[in-house]
Structures are given as structure tokens and as C-alpha cells.
Amino acid sequence: MRAAQLTEHAGPAAVRVTDIPEPVTDGSLVVVDLHAAGVSFPDLLQTTGAYQTVRPLPCVLGAEGAGIVRSAPEGSGLVAGQSVAVLAVTGSWQQTVAVPEQMVFPLPDSVSPTAGAGMLMNYFTAHFALDERARCRAGETVLVHGAAGGLGVAALQVAAALGLETIAVVGTEEKAAVAKANRATHTVLADGFKDRVLELTAGRGVDIVLDPVGGDRFTDSLRSLAPGGRAVVLGFTGGSIPTVKVNRLLLNNISVVGAGWGEYLRTVPDYAGRQWATLEPLLRDGTLVVPEPTLYPLDEASSALLSLENRSATGKVALDLTSRD
């Protein structure tokens, strides 16, 4: 089968498409022929060895995908021909994967295989940040940084499904249009966002900030919080890791919490299943929407990664795995 492997820690250019053997299983795993696989910021970090988990090389990148079940263990509730999304932590940028049944999620008719391919990591992370870490309540207002990116779009969609208002922070008017199309209540440009947020909230501020960006804007994120507000740290795509003067937390009764969904899943293995039990009915009835990703051919995996690196990507990016040539 065809796969995209990282051959050295030299950036996106070090990804090579090659032929590797299909996975071998004793029947205890679910075998899925993938239609597409998601591309995420951790994949980009792995290309330089900057991710917290450094895998031996060469390795297949990617951790999520979607396709059709080829075979499944008896009693799993999964059947051949079923459309599913999967988490494949040993690599999803390959045409066939074999994964534990707990990491397989049957897709409702409302979610196509290509949309499902890039859904799990971002939607599960957004839900974890809002529900588990921020303890959101319907009617609250959420400020979403990087709102036109893959995680940002997921956060907007999940927040809307949970009954939250959103203020999307973006870099350009074009990205504001992307955020608006993904159910943002308001959009603001990153430059001077704090003042605009305070205007939109009549000086009160927001209840929750979701920040996958970090960098210099984090202090203004804290200044944008209402009393009792929560800032949720999701990552540092901006490059620098901010520090917090804790007297600000004390004076305004605000909190800063981390949301490392992958790390949480390692300690609570059944958590993804519980999330799916909450989200799948919302997907099925249309309350929660998953837009189609920007799809690249597998041979252009490096270009897909570069679109994240140079921030030209909007929404989710995924790789098309259907070509057998």
C-alpha cells in the first residue's frame, strides 16, 4: 500500500511517499481502508522533531482518518462496509490501518468520509477544552483565537452546538469570512482584538478564551476575560510560550487551564468513546456540523504541511488516499 513517511527531522520536505506492507492482524483489530487522513499541527511539529513525542524514523505521520471497515472482531458491533472515522496513533497517512475497536467511530450519514477524516482530533480537542476543562455553560461567550484554522473551525462548530456565543479572532478579512461561515457569532481582527471584544461585550469581557496560538496576545486574552473567566491553553502555533503574572488571576478571579486532549486520553482511555456518545447524536441531527476539508493528493503531503506552516490553510486539511497508483 502507499504511505507518506517522515524520513528525517528536516521539515515537510523530508516526507516521502512510498510503498509499505499492509498491516498484519490476528483478528483482534479493526482493519479499515482509508479514504482520507487528517493533517494537523502536531504532524508539522513531528517533521522537525519538535513534538513532545519523538517517534523512531522512518515513521508514517498522521493520527486520524476515515474510510470503510474491511474486517472487524466478532462482538465489536462493527461490520465490513461500514463508514467510520479512526484514531491511528501509529500513523494514518497510509491506505490501510489496523486499530483497536475503541479507536473506531461509526460515521452518521451527515458526515462524509473526507469530512470525517479530519474531524476527530480537532472536534474532540474542542469539546474537551470547552466541556471538561472550561466547564462551559449554555449562553456563555467564548473567544476563539486562530478561528479560521482547523482547530478554530472545530471550536466554533462545537461551541455553537453547545449553545455558546463565539467571538472569532482572525488575521484577515478573508479568514473572517471563513469563521463567519462556520457559525461565529462575531469576528474581530487579531490586531487590537481586546478593545473590540470589550466593545462587543459592553465592557464585561468573555467567559472563556480558547487559545491555540500563544505568543504576545495571551496577556490581552487574560484582559479580555470577565470575572470568573477561564483561559484555556491549547498550544503555541505562534511560536513563543507566554508567561502569566498570577496576581492578575487573583485580582480578577480568573483561571488559566491547559487542555492536552491527547495526554488526557492516555490516562483515561475510554474518554474518546464517552465524547463520541455525546457528539454523535449532535452530528446525526445536524446540530453539530463538520465542513469538508481542503483535500491534497497523498503525493502532495509536504505541500499540505507547508500550508499549515505558512498559515495559508483555512479550515481542516486532509490527504486523499484513494489513488492506488
What attributes characterize this protein structure?
Quinone Oxidoreductase, Chain A, domain 1, seven-stranded mixed β-sheet, Rossmann fold, 11 helices, alpha/beta
Could you give a quick summary of the protein structure above?
With 325 residues, the chain is α/β, with parallel strands linked by helices. 30% of the residues lie in helices and 26% in strands.
Fill in the CATH topology of the largest domain. Quinone Oxidoreductase, Chain A, domain 1
Amino- and carboxy-terminal Cα gap = 10 Å
Let me know the number of strands: 16
Structural domains: how many: 2
Percent of residues in beta strands? 25-35%
Q: What's the helical proportion of residues?
A: 25-40%
What spatial form do the alpha-carbon principal axes imply?
Answer: globular
Low-confidence sequence ranges: none
Sheet bearing the most strands, described? 7 strands, mixed
Mean pLDDT rating? 94
CATH architecture tag of the largest domain? Alpha-Beta Complex
Structural class: alpha/beta
Q: What order do the helices and strands follow?
A: EEEHEEEEEHHEHEHEHEHEHEHHEHE
Q: Using the CA coordinates, give the radius of gyration.
A: 20 Å
Give the class-level CATH name of the largest domain: Alpha Beta
Helix segment tally:
11
Looking at CATH, the homologous superfamily of the largest domain is Medium-chain alcohol dehydrogenases, catalytic domain
